[in-house]
Design a protein that fits this description.
2 domains, 6 strands, Rossmann fold, 52% helix, 278 residues, single chain, alpha/beta
Amino acid sequence: MLSKMLLQRQTRRLDVWDRVDLILHIFDKHAITTEAKLQIELARMRYMGPRIYGMGFVLSRQGGGIGTSGIGETNTELMKRHWRNEIKKLTDQLEKLSKAKEMHIEQRKRAGLKTISIVGYTNAGKSSLFNLLTGKHTLVEDVLFATLDSTVGKMYIPKLQKEVLVTDTIGFIRNLPPRLINAFKSTLTESIHADILLHVIDISDPEVDEKIHVVKNILLELGRDNEDVIYVFNKIDAVSVLPEKELCKKYELNSPLFISVKTRIGIPKLQEIIAKRA
C-alpha cells in the first residue's frame, strides 16, 4: 500500500520552470551549431549564478560555526571560482567564433556581395520566405524558435545577373531578457550588418502593432536603425479585409509590402524591391 502511494506521488511530480528557464529549454531543443549551444550554455550559466551563490549560502549556514570558517564557506568560494572560470571559457570560445563571422562579413563586403537579412517575431513566416527566396528547405514549424541558428542561402537576381546572400535568423519575442539578447548577439551579427533588412510581420495576428514594436526595440538594442528596414506584411491570404492603406500610412518610412508566401502573392514585387536596393 505504501509503495503504491509513493508511486502515485512520483507520477504526479512536475518540473517547474520560470520564464527564462522555459526559453532556455526551448533554445536547447532547437540548437544545432556549436555557436548556438555555447550561447545557450553561457546564458544558462549567467542565469544560474545567483542560484549557485544561494546554495553556497545555505551550505555555509550548515557548515560554519562561531570562530570557524566552516566547510560551507569554502564550498561557496569554490563554486564562485568554478562559475567564473566556466563563464570565461565560454566567452572566449564565442569571441573567437564572433571574430571569424565578422571577418567573413568584411570579406563579402570587399567582394561587393550584398546581404539581405530576414528578421521578425517568432512564427511570422521568416523561414518560409527564406526558403522561397533561396530555394532552400530549412525547417518550418509552427513552434517557438524553430530557427535558432542563422541560416544563409543565395538568391539570384536575373535583372542584375548576380547573387545576393539571404540570412534567416532567430524569431523575436516580447520581453526577451537582456541576458538572452546579449548571449545571441553573435548569431544576430548578420542582421546588424545586412545591406537590406526585411522585417516579416504576420498581418493576421491581432497583436500585430505590438509585435512590430517588440522587433523594432530589439533591433535598436542591437544597434540597428529602424528607418532602413523594409516591413513585409505576410499571410495576407489569412485576412478577410486587408488594411493596406492604413498600414502604408502608419509605416510609410518602412516601405510596406504585402505578400503571401503560401500563395506567392506579392513575391515578384518584393524581388523587384530587393533588386533595386541590391
